[in-house]
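Course assignment 3, question 2. Fill in each field.
Student: A.L.
Task: Predict the tertiary structure for the chain below.
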Amino acid sequence: MQNRILKILKTTLIALLNIAVISFVIYATSGTPEAMETLSKMGSRGSEVTAVQQVLKDRGLYTGSIDGIYGTLTRQAVIKFQKQQGLTADGIAGPKTLKALGVSIGSVANASQNDISMLAHIISAESRGEPYIGQVAVGAVVLNRVEHPSFPDTIAGVVYQQGAFTAVTDGQMYAAIEDSAYKAAKDALNGWDPSGGAIYYYNPAKTTNAWIRSRPVITTIGEHVFCS
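Answer field:
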């Protein structure tokens, strides 16, 4: 009887060891950084795709809508870019392609050329005609939102958050960029914040939104009131 029990225990132990080995192999092959890395490819959606589309559009390679959806036109544009750069033309925006595009999502401190371009686009569209310090302040608001827990944690995510900026909704975001907007974007990224830490701003002559008017005012620059 005792031998039978020992035999059953031995068989059970071997089975458990086999399961453990199999589980480890599956984890080792599918849990590596390469396998787990997020790539923008057909069907992907989000801020990274939006950033890729913006860069490709600026380069004249992408003619579709900047909608954050990785479709056929985006893939074709990525392939064109990859061929230009001597990269593997697989239509997938992997690490090497993203680096070549200058797309660095999720870190203001390591702002890429695309981050600067995207910030310049929204500054130009939202503060056209404003004094230079007001342009920097608009850029600072975007960056303050990136750091704020109530908003997306990337520049692209903040800019393209639904309903956040009128310029994105009405298409002014894609108009020609004023030269000063690029400098303003860099100044904001380098830490200049004339807004005083604001996460909202509005033009009192144009808005009827009672909620935004109720926000604590920090400062007024040009036609914009900046608030927390």
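Instructor remarks: Strands lie at 200-202, 217-221, 224-227. The CA atoms of residues 202 and 209 lie 9 Å apart.
Grade: pending
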